[in-house]
Amino acid sequence: MANASQVANSNSKDWLGHPRGLFILFFTEMWERFSFYGMRALLVLYMTKYLIAAADGGMTVLGWETIRPFIVSVLEKAGITGEGVSSQAIASQIYGFYTSFVYITPILGGLLADTWLGKRKSVYLGGVLMAIGHFLMAIESYFFIALFFIVLGNGCFKPNISTQVGAVYPEGDKRVDGAYTIFYMGINIGAFFAALVCGTLGQKFGWHYGFGAAGVGMMVGLVVYHFGRGYLPAEERMAPKSSAQGESQDEPDFWKRVIALLVVFALNMAFWAIYEQQGNTLQLWASDKTNWSFLGFTIPDTWYQSFNPFFIFVFAPLLDRFWAMQARKNKEPTSVTKMGIGCFLVGIAFVVMIAASKVVPEGEKGSVMWLASTTWIFTMGELYLSPIGLALVSKVAPKRLVSTMMGLFFGSIALGNYAAGFIGSFYSVIGYDRFFAILVVLGVAAAFAFFIANRPLRKIIGTKS
Question: Closest Cα partner for 164 from 107, 215, 122?
Answer without folding.
Answer: 122
